[in-house]
Amino acid sequence: xxxxxxxxxxxxxxxxxxxxxxxxxxxxxxxxxxxxxxxxxxxxxxxxxxxxxxxxxxxxxxxxxxxxxxxxxxxxxxxxxxxxxxxxxxxxxxxxxxxxxxxxxxxxxxxxxxxxxxxxxxxxxxxxxxxxxxxxxxxxxxxxxxxxxxxxxxxxxxxxxxxxxxxxxxxxxxxxxxxxxxxxxxxxxxxxxxxxxxxxxxxxxxxxxxxxxxxxxxxxxxxxxxxxxxxxxxxxxxxxxxxxxxxxxxxx
Length: 252
Prior knowledge:
Elements: H1 6-20, H2 34-68, H3 72-98, H4 108-133, H5 136-163, H6 168-179, H7 182-191, H8 201-221, H9 227-251
Helix pairs in contact: 1-4, 1-5, 1-7, 2-5, 2-8, 2-9, 3-8, 4-5, 4-6, 4-7, 4-8, 5-6, 5-9
């Protein structure tokens, strides 16, 4: 499709906004009692860690390598994304300890996941718009793949926010705010088509995801003393990884 075609903008706006609405998937949790949700939260955190690792490795990093080839720069940006989040968390932790009002603070990981998911959704918008430039059928296939990817990941992100101290309704709203970044991502891809290469955002976001999973989520579940619950957490973690792998294989 031509970048001057109004139909292109209509397709991109409609589909990216539709995908962003998947952030509300966590609304089902509002109907659970707090006691039930508390019991499920550790499993959801383990699942979220798996979806972040799977999304980083099987989607963002693979896509970057497909676009750029096996180049050092891809891995440099991946490490940069990991390292920047290490620094960011250190700064957030300092602020958390210096402030006298600790009880109003949320875990630093919640702010980090919102930023990382916003960046990830922005790159998703770039991919969707880029695929529509190749034709409507290609665009729709990309949208379906993105939607299948987003459902488990958005549920995992919601679990991270609630586990990090946000109230359920506020967590849903913030999750949607980060998800809506997919819309400007789509518009930027159309407006700058062929003029600006921002593929580096893919491995950078992948590094963000891996840091959050490895540094903040996995430590919460790996010290469980009961073998049964440890195996249950590992199963939830593996389910998140395998689900994202399955989405990739089906979309390949």
